[in-house]
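Lab notes, practical 5.
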Amino acid sequence: MMRRLLCLGLLSVLAACSALPDKPARQTVYDFGPAPAATAGGAPSRPTLLLGDIEVNAALESTSLLYRLAYDDPYQLRAYALARWSAPPGHLLAQRLRTVLGRDRAVVDEIASATLARRPGSVPLVLRVQLEEFSHRFDSASDSKGVLRLRGTLLENTPAGERFVAQRSFAVEHPAPTADAAGGVRALTAAADTAARDIAAWLEQR
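Output from the prediction step:
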């Protein structure tokens, strides 16, 4: 009798444990990873550049990792539930741009630029960047890509204020290796690296 009661008690405990909810899954946090290796070259020789904060639309102000089902509803942006960026995309892109552009010129922020402005002949060029699209787009359930669109505006500081120099739009699409959040991160990182190189090449022509 005692053995039967013990067995029943053990079964009750096991049944209660099996009814407990699973631990909530934790979000995976991503960034752009290490910057691409630079080619060998000399010391920075091009004019100093001011790169301020990147302007983004409301959807890109958070750390959400966004995707779009172009085959279902191309007008709806969705966020991965268990994946996010370590910082808003505009911040991550600004870091990458400073790294890539800083290989052949000094890249400064607003504070450093104000200091330089007090030195004759040291006022830097200004690059304003607007990030318009940064999402993982699915053309089908198995075919997807990272999509980046931005606009760069180059200005020159003058005693009368900023003077327009040039403007260009950049659009980059990079295939995703897998149709999930991790694949989207890799595709968007590759797209950001390509955009940074394209901007650097554009600035070399100015």
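Observations recorded by the TA: Strands lie at 28-30, 46-51, 55-56, 64-69, 77-85, 105-108, 125-138, 144-158, 161-175. The first helix runs from residue 2 to 19.
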